[in-house]
Design brief:
By secondary structure, the protein is mainly β. It has one helix and 16 strands. The strands form eight sheets. The protein has a two-stranded antiparallel ribbon with strand order 1-2. Strands 3-4 form a two-stranded antiparallel sheet. Strands 5-6 form a two-stranded antiparallel sheet. A hairpin with a 4-residue loop joins strand 11 and strand 12. The protein starts with 11 loop residues before the first strand and ends with a helix. It comes from Orthonyx spaldingii (Chowchilla). Its main location: secreted. Belongs to the R-spondin family.
């Protein structure tokens, strides 16, 4: 029998015009649907999103998933499919995967990721395999892969990185290097020397000129 727009007595063993199904046929799940202020019972082959089928000797029921952001669950505390935008991990739903786990986008699941060890100390500053002879070089540090990821498609984080550094020795011991001319800090002294040289050259020019006359 149909009461109103919905076939609320479909699959029922007993049904009420006001409350819909009260008891369901064997193997069907009883689901209490709410619409505004009204609620009525339905008998379903499978429970709707956010619910799971709980089988009991008395009557099979649709029980609500108690896990946040869960779309469907296996039991009250174990989610099998999370809502859009959430990753499933050990029966729970997360915006991002916990530490040590990587996101498998095609399944929206968290799987064991690539584990790496601690960074080593920074190595010796060098350039062209030399630790001297240059002002600047590079120093490198590394870390080891402790555990490979469960899926080959999941990349490991970087295991080596370098940074610019200043050489401990600009010039190699025993090596030849060109000395730069010393800069005269006293500009007045430099100017005075230039003036003296100019006056001396002028005096020589005058003496030569008189001789030639």
């Amino acid at each position: 029998a149909n009461y109103g727009p919905n076939p609320i007595c479909k699959g029922c063993l007993s049904c009420s015009k006001d409350n819909g199904c009260i008891r369901c046929q064997h193997k069907l799940f009883f689901f209490l649907r709410r619409e505004g202020m009204r609620q009525y019972g339905e008998c379903l082959h499978s429970c709707p999103s956010g619910y799971y089928g709980l089988r009991t000797p008395d009557m099979n029921r649709c029980s609500r998933c108690r896990i946040e952001n869960c779309d469907s669950c296996f039991s009250r505390d174990f989610c099998t499919k999370c809502k859009t935008g959430f990753y499933s991990h050990r029966g729970r739903c997360f915006r991002g995967c916990p530490a040590g786990f990587a996101a498998l986008e095609e399944l929206m699941e968290c799987v064991e990721g690539c584990e790496v060890g601690q960074w080593s100390e920074w190595g010796t500053c060098s350039r062209n395999n030399k630790t001297c002879g240059f002002k600047w070089g590079l120093e490198t540090r590394t870390r080891q892969i402790v555990k490979k990821p469960a899926k080959d498609t999941i990349p490991c984080p970087t295991i080596a990185e370098s940074r610019r550094c200043k050489m401990a020795m600009r010039h190699c011991p025993g090596g030849k290097h060109r000395r730069r001319p010393a800069k005269t800090k006293d500009k007045k002294k430099k100017k005075k020397n230039l003036m003296e040289r100019a006056q001396k050259q002028h005096s020589i020019f005058l003496a030569t000129d008189k001789t030639s006359q």
